[in-house]
Amino acid sequence: MADIESLLKEKRRFKPSAEFAKQANWNSRTVAEYRKLAARSPQQFWAKMARENVSWFTRWKKVLDWEPPFARWFVGGKLNVAYNCLDRHLEGEHAWRRNKAAIIWEGEPGDQRVLTYGQLHREVCKFANVLKGLGVKKGDRVALYMPMIPELAIAMLACARIGAPHSIVFGGFSAEALRDRINDAGAVAVVTADGGFRRGKPLPLKLAVDEALKGADSVKHVVVARRCENPVTMQEGRDHWWHELMDAASPNHQAAKLDSEHPLFILYTSGTTGKPKGILHTTGGYLTHATTTAKAIFDLKDDDTYWCTADIGWVTGHSYVVYGILANGATTFMYEGAPTTPGPDRFWDIIERHRITIFYTAPTAIRTFVRLGDEHPKKHDLSSLRLLGTVGEPINPEAWIWYHRLIGGKRCPIVDTWWQTETGGVMITPLPGETETVPGSATRPFPGVDAEVFTQEGKPAKPPDGGFLVLRKPWPGMLRGIWGDPARFREQYWSQYPNIYFAGDGAHRDKRGYFWIMGRIDDVMNVSGHRIGTMEVESALVSHEQVAEAAVVGRPDDITGTALAAFVTPRAGTAAGGAFADELRRHVTREIGAIARPADIRFTDALPKTRSGKIMRRLLRDIASGKETVGDTSTLEDYSVLAKLRESEEA
Ligand code: WTA
Questions:
Q1: Mean pLDDT on 320-345
Q2: What is the pLDDT of residue 631?
Q3: N or C, which end of the chain has less CB nearby within 10 Å?
Q4: 87-136, pLDDT tens digit by residue?
Q5: What total of structural domains would you count in the chain?
Q6: Of 171, 153, 172, nearest in space to 318 by CA
Q7: Is 593 part of any domain?
Q8: Looking at ligand 1, which atom is closest to the CA of residue 390?
Q9: Measuring CA to CA, which residue among 195, 35, 17 is closest to residue 107?
Q10: By the 8 A CB rule, do 305 and 325 touch?
Q11: Quick count: other Cβ atoms within 10 Å of Cβ 613?
Q12: Domain assignment of residue 537, given as a range
């Protein structure tokens, strides 16, 4: 650690090597040209990207129609995302890609599958026909609740092919969370599996679907992929085996010619209040953004084997395991299981065996590996790697340097990419052949992206002052709304500053204009790179019959970035102790999923509140992280509550 500290004092900068720069898809000349064009006209820049990187059945009539906060990109254009990811690699100058690996997959137990572009195309066409056969029509929503197996990518692409927006629910979410999402979207079908392997155990996904559907009437059909040979009950008429339907399906299917603004997917994410928000993404703008950024930032080439470790259930998996990568005709590697199964070197073993060239992961994973020890990566030949990336939360410079040395062998550029479920694709990032990087900074906005740090008053903050991260102009991958709730869409993102997107992150810029993201400024916590709303966890706790009131805050954690700390007021007569705390942890896991499980639980008779009855989470944050309270406590209703809480111990 000592030499890392001193390195930081040197303020080290990392220039792309001449060797990397020379072969980059976007070298410094290209980047300079694009930045110039985008500064003059973001619309012209994005239109150029849409022409060069995406195939259209019908060219658009207008690049952008912007009636804040509603944007329409490539108005009048027609295209199909699955066609862009598959069919166009089987014809014309790229026809040779038919026998190129589209997906290389490894299961947790070590089994492997490869799907070439030709094979993946055939599977997707068949599943598109399966969906049609079940009566799924253009515009119908389909929920996907699956493990990381190729069938998930097949199902997504089949939905995109027929124009049925998918709503992927991460397999770690509980039956309750799945039910809420199915109901909010009004899904007509669910695609799931009999299980998926995680830490040696099969996830009981079908069981959760059965539970969820006891209160979700919109769903007419469930398709179940076989993965674990887990015993499952199949409900006659409603449930169908994937392999049986596929055996009977025709491999011929014409991709639907969809409007540029046709909904592609809904993805639920945590917000500051109440229930998760269904973030809506559409077709033409999203694909332009995902494909262009993947090509430029990951420098994708035909001979790369690219691995993004994110689960497809998160936005990173949507844009950079599947859509952005396959649209470039690249090979995407997919892994089913846990990073430390069977041993702490599983990832490095995978990189060595599959000769991974580009590796994209989260800071929380990197910190876990730092803790596990250098001997694990050192046992493996990682020389195939040529580019590294991070996403999901700020990366601390020590972890960055470790990644650079131990994994990147000091030769790989690192792209620290800032973006959100709402942005659809990367917004602030280094470009690997051009940008000088500084550990901990996401550097500069992608061309065509107008990011700024604002003061409360809505003026650009003076570097190096901190403020709120905003996006001043619409961009093609931007969310088109919150499913079924336009009022919340306006309120959440557009009410702070007129016609300017409010990201909810704190940030500052340094003297050369580089961005430093400081994390969420609202009540959304970032645990292991996943957003969890305090409200959701609090509602889950309060839904337990012995809980009267609960407040949840984040506290710093070395590995997960943020850990959840819960302050719980039990109902009278409840024996509040370790056993009850464990019971509550299990309860939250059941209600939301294991990612929302509180690390700390403290029991208290009362919570610190303002006179108007608002819980003062700021004070709870200080207590949870063991800090002295320095801020203003004058609005606190009852001072003794604070003293008692300080004395309280973790249960
Ligand atoms: C955080 C994930 C710092 C940020 C793609 C954002 C980051 C939230 C970075 C979105 C980064 C993401 N540096 N913070 N490179 N990338 N974040 O919707 O707080 O799951 O608002 O999308 O993650 O999380 P989401």
A1: 97
A2: 66
A3: N
A4: 999 999 999 999 999 999 999 999 999 999 999 999 999 999 999 999 99
A5: 2
A6: 153
A7: yes
A8: 15
A9: 195
A10: no
A11: 7
A12: 524-647
Atom of ligand 1 nearest to the CA of 269: 18
User: In the listed set 256, 285, 313, which residue is the last one of a domain according to the structure?
Assistant: 256
Hey, whose CA ends up nearest to atom 11 of ligand 1? 418
Q: Which amino acids bring their CB within 6 angstroms of ligand 1?
A: 269, 314-316, 391-394, 416-421, 442, 503-505, 517, 519-520, 526, 531
Q: Tell me the CA–centroid distance for residue 191 and ligand 1, in Å.
A: 28
Indicate whether 549 belongs to any domain. Answer: yes
- Asked if 78 and 260 count as a contact pair (C-beta separation under 8 A), the reply is yes
Q: Which residue, by CA, sits nearest to atom 13 of ligand 1?
A: 394
Q: 137-181, pLDDT tens digit by residue?
A: 999 999 999 999 999 999 999 999 999 999 999 999 999 999 999
CA of 339 to the centre of ligand 1 (A): 21
> Which residue has the least CA distance to atom 10 on ligand 1?
420
The pLDDT of residue 7 is above 70: no
CATH code, 589: 3.30.300.30
Whose structure tokens read 């596990």?
372
Q: What CATH number is associated with residue 163? A: 3.40.50.980
Say if CB 507 and CB 468 are below 8 A apart.
yes
Distance 501 CA to ligand 1 centre (A): 15
d(C-alpha 333, C-alpha 318), whole Å: 14
The residue among 212, 240, 256 that closes a domain is 256
* pLDDT band for position 539 (cuts 50, 70, 90): confident
Q: Which amino acid is at 180?
A: D
Cis bond leading into 464, ω under 30°?
Answer: yes
Cα 321 to ligand 1 centre (Å): 17
Coil, helix or strand at residue 508: strand
pLDDT, position 396: 85
CB 576 within 8 A of CB 540: no
| Spacing, Cα 392 to ligand 1 middle (Å) | 4
pLDDT at 4: 39
Which residue from 419, 427, 444, 524 has its CB within 8 A of the most atoms of ligand 1, so it is best to mutate? Answer: 419
Tell me the best of 312, 505, 562 to mutate to test the pocket of ligand 1, counting ligand atoms within 8 Å of each CB and taking the most.
505
For residue 593, the cross-strand partners are 173
Atom of ligand 1 nearest to the CA of 504: 21
Residue nearest to atom 1 of ligand 1 (CA): 393
Closest Cα to atom 15, ligand 1: which residue? 418
Nearest Cα neighbor of 527 from 329, 376, 393 is 393
Within-domain flag for 236: yes
**In this structure, how many other beta carbons lie within 10 angstroms of the beta carbon of residue 358?**
29
> What is the atom index within ligand 1 of the atom nearest the CA of 520?
19
User: Mapped to the 3 state alphabet, what secondary structure does 332-359 carry?
Assistant: EEEECCCCCCCCCCHHHHHHHHHCCCEE
Q: Is this structure's pTM higher than 0.85?
A: yes
CA 136 to chain centre: 27
Confidence of residue 425 (pLDDT cuts 50, 70, 90): very high
Domain annotation covers residue 512 = no
483 C-alpha to ligand 1 centroid (Å): 21
Q: How many Cα atoms sit within 13 Å of 109 on the Cβ side?
A: 10
Out of 285-299, 494-508, 528-542, 630-644, least confident range: 630-644
